[in-house]
Write a structure and sequence with these properties.
single chain, 505 residues, mainly beta, Methylamine Dehydrogenase, Chain H, five-stranded antiparallel β-sheet, four-stranded antiparallel β-sheet
Length: 505
């Protein structure tokens, strides 16, 4: 009888763990372990490309007793080449972000509380081998009074760091500031940043790109009083090479409407595109709009340009631009009632949407899925990754490939990246929602990062995991040879969690 019970128990476990699609275990659905320390947590992991098919990953880590910033490099074969502490200063450091420098290295920035109870911003540069370029524990980007947070980062054509952030030094409503840092770690503009937009209103959600002339363009969201009441609008400013403001502009012209959640990408040699979610006055529907703007501040798509129309709520999650000259966006979509679905759209640089006006639904399975991120495959399509609630309230990690014609390649329901029987959390912050993070593998595929607590019953906290989503798939990741599973037999190896070449690779 006990034997029968054990068989039934195993069957129940398999029902929980196995996805609808079969899976080739050579690929390893549960991901490659980057870091996990007994009794400690590694969280808020973010990722960027190393330019050679691998990636850099950074996260906040409390193995020392305080929250510090750590970094790892995973090469294109799935081996962890190194892990290292980037900042272990006093106080806590958290919410890191990372961008590649275009030279084989990367910039890491984070919130830092080493000198006060309010957040400052510090940063560090690393080369391709993980060697730090600047002062130990990072340089100060801003340590003005008040709180500085929600920062956006990009590297310009010279490998210099551009960074914009929210800042409460003048009032509790927050303003937008910006700074440029050269490769030596020297601030190029006013100490503690250049004020982009200062008012008694609220400024938030900065994004930043290069203006291709040594300066930067910052977009952001701000509220305002109008004859129709209180609403949000989308704004932009250009900062010249010398740190002075060349122009500011209102991207959205529809006063009395509500425009939120801007995302911006640079269009090399042309300008930039910003997208946002827009609510018509008196309506409950939000659609996705966009605008292309030249570097001199001229709108190129007329007034607000419709990209995705919905009968319900649409909110953008990400915007990307590929080498073929196409734009791709992914948005939250409530067209199917209370479930949160995902819609993607492809747009040319003239503003024409190339898939249908309502976009392409990423997944047709029941349940909600959010948030999400995409990367182009540079063949006219995209790879998407998201958190999926079809089987539980904790959420699993799924992915999808959409080809150049808008066709779903990895099944109508998508395919899983990790559906381990415990909580998988994606990384990065947006109103306390944790986001998925994704980067290109420079070969038509993508690399996803997340943290999960699969070892909680063994005394471990959250660990950082990564997986490659190969583009060369006939039937989705199920048929690919990728980075292998996190093997439970290794959980007792004391040296396993640090600098190692993964034995399960």
């Amino acid at each position: 009888m006990k034997f029968v019970y054990m068989i039934l128990l195993c069957q129940l476990i398999l029902v929980k763990i196995l996805p609808a699609q079969s899976f080739n275990e050579q690929w390893g659905a549960q991901g490659l372990r980057v870091s996990n320390v007994y009794g400690k947590n590694q969280q808020q992991s973010v990722i960027c490309s190393d330019g050679s098919g691998g990636c850099f990953i950074t996260w906040q880590d409390n193995r020392s007793g305080n929250w510090d910033i750590w970094l790892a490099k995973v090469n294109n074969s799935g081996a962890v080449e190194f892990t290292t502490a980037i900042c272990s200063a006093s106080g806590k450091q958290n919410w890191p972000n990372i961008v590649d420098d275009g030279l084989g290295g990367a910039y890491i920035a984070w919130r830092d509380y080493r000198t006060s109870g309010s957040a400052d911003i510090y940063a560090q540069h690393i080369d391709s081998e993980g060697n730090t370029s600047w002062t130990q524990d990072g340089i100060v980007i801003v340590n003005a009074s008040g709180t500085q947070y929600r920062f956006a980062m990009k590297a310009n054509e010279n490998g210099e760091l551009l960074i914009a952030w929210r800042d409460s030094r003048l009032d509790s409503d927050y303003d937008i500031y910006v700074q440029k840092i050269d490769l030596n770690g020297t601030a190029q503009w006013t100490a503690n940043g250049v004020s982009v937009h200062s008012s008694m209103l609220i400024e938030t959600r900065p994004d930043i790109i290069s203006d291709e002339a040594g300066g930067a363009i910052v977009t952001f969201q701000s509220n305002r009083w109008t004859t129709s009441g209180f609403g949000w609008g989308i704004y932009a400013a250009r900062i010249k090479n010398n740190g002075s403001i060349e122009w500011t502009m209102t991207i959205t012209d529809d006063y009395g409407y509500n425009e939120e959640y801007p995302y911006t990408v640079q269009i090399p040699g042309q300008g930039f595109v910003t997208i946002w979610s827009e609510k018509n006055a008196g309506s409950l529907d939000y659609d996705i709009f966009g605008q292309k703007i030249s570097f001199n501040g001229t709108k190129l798509w007329g007034n607000d340009h419709l990209l995705i129309r919905s009968t319900n709520y649409q909110r953008p999650y990400w915007l990307s631009y590929d080498k073929l000259g196409y734009l791709y966006l992914i948005s939250h979509d409530s067209q199917n009632g209370s479930n949160r679905d995902l819609t993607v759209q492809k747009v040319d640089t003239l503003g024409n949407y190339l898939w249908n006006q309502n976009g392409v639904q990423v997944c047709s399975y029941t349940g909600s899925r959010y948030p999400a991120m995409i990367v182009p495959d540079n063949k006219g399509g995209i790879i998407a990754v998201w958190r999926d609630y079809r089987f539980n309230n904790s959420g699993d990690i799924y992915c999808q490939k959409i080809d150049s014609n808008g066709t779903r390649i990895w099944g109508s329901a998508g395919t899983y990246v990790c559906n381990y029987s415990d909580l998988q959390s994606f990384s990065y912050e947006d109103n306390y929602i944790q986001w998925p993070f994704l980067t290109t593998d420079n070969n038509g595929g993508a690399i996803a990062v997340w943290h999960d607590r699969r070892w909680a019953n063994s005394g471990y906290g959250y660990g950082v995991y990564v997986q490659r989503l190969n583009d060369n798939l006939a039937d989705g990741p199920n048929s690919a040879v990728g980075w292998k599973n996190d093997l439970k037999s290794d959980q007792l190896s004391n040296n396993y969690w640090y600098n190692f070449l993964n034995p399960y690779f």
